[in-house]
Amino acid sequence: MPIQQDLERIALQERELILARLDAEIAWQLGTQIRSLAVQRGLPVVVDVRRFGQPLFYTALEGTTPDNVEWVRRKINVVARFHRSSYAVGLRDTAKNETIYEAQGLSLADFATHGGSFPLVVAGAGIVGAVTVSGLPQRADHELAVEALCLLLGRDYATLSLAAE
Questions:
Q1: Alpha-carbon gap, residue 29 to 49, rounded angstroms
Q2: How far apart are CA 13 and CA 43, in angstroms?
Q3: How do the domains of the chain map onto residue ranges?
Q4: Whose CB among 6, 62, 66, 138 lies 3.0–4.6 Å from 115's, allowing a Cys bridge?
Q5: Which pairing describes strands 46-51 and 18-19: parallel, antiparallel, or unpaired?
Q6: Which pLDDT value is given to residue 85?
Q7: CA dihedral 121, 117, 110, 22 (to 10 degrees)
Q8: Do residues 78 and 52 make contact, with C-beta atoms less than 8 angstroms apart?
Q9: Residue 87, SS3?
Q10: Strand locations in 83-125, DSSP E?
Q11: What is the DSSP letter of 49?
Q12: CATH homologous superfamily of domain 3-160?
């Protein structure tokens, strides 16, 4: 799909997927929703749900490696820094034919502009954390997080998902 089309849809996802609160219970519900989807589909993923500075949920399914833990950390850093999904930041840089190092001077060892980390927005508070998936191709990591957020919030995933490739 064209980059601009995905960027527009991701911006819509980021505007529409708003939580009433983010506490340990909500993080557990979101994390277990992603885990359940991944187990049903046989997907090897790591899932992390956190308020910035405070992990609230974490799981690593069979088939993941310690490298996935590093991808999670680096993707979260992108969301914390730019308050956008890691996939949106990566697509933006791709459109400009730049890396995050070239665009922002940020270390590739600490920042990964690959899909899979999505900002968690709380109504009245703004972006307070991130949900992150690692283990699939980046677009699929991103969409698994969005699908679970839609389920948690009672939103129709079909109206917010990225267009089929």
A1: 10
A2: 23
A3: 3-160
A4: 138
A5: unpaired
A6: 98
A7: 40
A8: no
A9: helix
A10: 117-122
A11: E
A12: Haem-degrading domain (3.30.450.150)
